[in-house]
Design brief:
Layout: H1 3-15, H2 18-27, H3 34-41, H4 45-57, E1 61-66, E2 69-74, H5 76-95
Antiparallel strand pairs: 1-2
């Protein structure tokens, strides 16, 4: 399996779960704390933390500590790069 294939599989893992997609959707509007995400997506905080752990493991979400607070945000450079790689690779697949 190619690296791109693995990344696309991870993309499916990230957005293939409704709650993870809802978290990403909330973060698309800007950085949020776990508590703020919990309020926006209306799922329990432990579940939000578990989903964030998965989203971080596949590089869709970044976190940044600001004092006692941790802010989560969408990892735009990674996601944009993944989509660019995918778009670049598609024409090559059609030629085979």
């Amino acid at each position: 399996m190619s690296d791109l294939c693995k990344e696309v599989a991870n993309m499916g893992k990230g957005i293939g779960n409704e709650n993870r997609y809802r978290i990403l959707e909330a973060l698309m509007l800007g950085s949020l704390t776990v508590g703020e995400i919990t309020k926006k997506v209306k799922i329990p905080q432990p579940a939000v933390s578990q989903h964030l752990k998965i989203l971080k493991s596949i590089h869709f979400v970044e976190d940044k500590r600001q004092g006692k607070v941790v802010l989560y945000s969408v990892n735009v450079p990674y996601m944009a790069g993944l989509l660019k790689k995918l778009a670049k690779d598609l024409p090559n697949q059609n030629k085979k």
